[in-house]
Amino acid sequence: MATTVGQRLAALRAEHDLTLATLSEMTGISKSTLSRLETDQRKPTLELLLPLSRTYQVSLDDLVGAPEVGDPRVAMKPRQLDHGRVGIPLTRSIGPLQAWKMIITDSELHEPRVHEGYEWFYVLSGRIRMRLGDKEIVLRAGEVAEFDCRQPHSFSSSDGRPAEIISLFGKQGERIHTRAAPPNRS
C-alpha cells in the first residue's frame, strides 16, 4: 500500500527521534502545521517541504514518494518501410511529434504523396533527391529540408548509395524551427 506524504513525514520524525517542538525549532515551521502535515490535514507545499527535506537530509522526491524514473533510453527497433527503406523510431510513443532515423537506399523517385502534417529532416550522410511540388533539389549531408506535407513530395537517394536522415514529423502541422547560423549582428 502506498504511503502518504504525511505518513512519510511522521516516519522520518520518529526515525530521527524528534519531537514536534524540536522539529519546529529546526525548520521554523509551527508545531500545529507540522502536526497537520503528518496527519494529511494540510497540503504539503514546496515552502514547507524544503526545510523538512534539508532537516531529514532526504531528496524532495523521496519525501513526496515520487515514482522512480524508468530507463530513459528508447528501444530503437528498425522497421522496414515502403520502397526498401529502413526507419528507426527515436521517440518512445506516438505523439504529436515523431522522430525517426531513416536509411534510404532506393534511387527511384516514387509517386509523390500528399498527407496531413509537417516534416523536417536533416541529412546525416549521403545525398537525398527530393521532389516537392514541381521542384526537384538535391540535399547533401548537413542540409535541412522543412515542408508542409500537403504539398506533393517524394525523396530518394540521389546516387543509389545509402543516405541517412533524421526526420521529425508533426501530424497536426507542428513546425520545427531551426537556425543554421547565429544572426549577423553587425
Task: Give the structure's gist in a few sentences.
This protein has 186 residues and is an alpha+beta fold.
Structure description:
The structure is a single chain. By secondary structure, the protein is α+β, with helices and mostly antiparallel strands. Helices cover 23% and strands 28% of the residues. It has a six-stranded antiparallel beta sheet, with no helix packed on it. A three-stranded antiparallel beta sheet has the order 6-5-8, with no helix packed on it. The longest helix is centred in the first third of the chain and has 11 residues, at 5-15. The radius of gyration is 28 Å and the shape is rod-shaped. The mean pLDDT is 85.
List the helices and strands and how they pair.
Elements: H1 5-15, H2 20-27, H3 31-38, H4 46-56, H5 60-64, E1 79-80, E2 86-89, E3 97-104, E4 118-125, E5 127-132, E6 135-140, E7 144-148, E8 153-157, E9 163-170
Antiparallel strand pairs: 1-2, 2-3, 3-9, 4-7, 4-9, 5-6, 5-8
